[in-house]
From TrEMBL:
GO cellular component: ribosome
SUPFAM superfamilies for this protein: Acyl-CoA N-acyltransferases (Nat) (SSF55729)
UniProt enzyme class: transferase
Source organism: Amycolatopsis cynarae
GO molecular function: protein-N-terminal-alanine acetyltransferase activity
Gene3D superfamilies in the cross-refs: 3.40.630.30
UniProt-recorded name of the protein: Ribosomal protein S18-alanine N-acetyltransferase
Length: 156
């Protein structure tokens, strides 16, 4: 597996994976992925041995130098490739980008997604809030989680 900037030609595959993973909620559309790339957000694809897209992840950053904040907008890994380190590699790459900017990182995750909760906890995230009925149309709740900026981690 290799990580590389997400290619626009892979957006249709991202939408397929979204529908597989988030069928009970509101999977992202092709337009949503296009908007994220148009906004200049940091998106990576995880590509298998044959060059096929098997996962993706995106990080948005707002603010100015010294005051940046980042948000993980999405991480998705095709079901048959889950549990093989793809999600971990994608998350670590997003966190490296946030660390370059010395930005804290925020995200929302379903309260019942134990695998993701464990992954985020292993990478320094803590729960800072609860968003009731965040995911629609399922009405599932989400935790808001945060990982401090690199400089805050070094001080603490």
């Amino acid at each position: 597996m290799r990580l590389a900037p997400l290619r626009r030609k892979d957006i249709a595959r991202c939408v397929e994976i979204e529908k597989q993973l988030f069928a009970g909620d509101d999977p992202w559309s092709a337009r949503a992925f296009q908007s994220e790339l148009d906004a200049g957000n940091y998106y990576l694809g995880a590509y298998g041995e044959e060059g096929e897209l098997i996962g993706y992840a995106g990080l948005a950053t707002a603010g100015r130098p010294g005051e940046f904040e980042s948000s993980v907008h999405t991480i998705g890994v095709e079901r048959e490739h889950q549990g093989r380190g793809v999600g971990t590699a994608l998350l670590r790459a997003l966190l490296e980008k946030a660390d370059e900017l010395n930005a804290p990182v925020f995200l929302e995750v379903r309260t019942d997604n134990d695998r993701a909760l464990e992954l985020y906890a292993r990478h320094g995230f803590s729960r800072i809030g609860l968003r009731k009925r965040y995911y629609q149309p399922s009405g599932a709740d989400a935790y808001t989680m945060m990982r401090p900026a690199r400089s805050a981690q070094e001080v603490g």
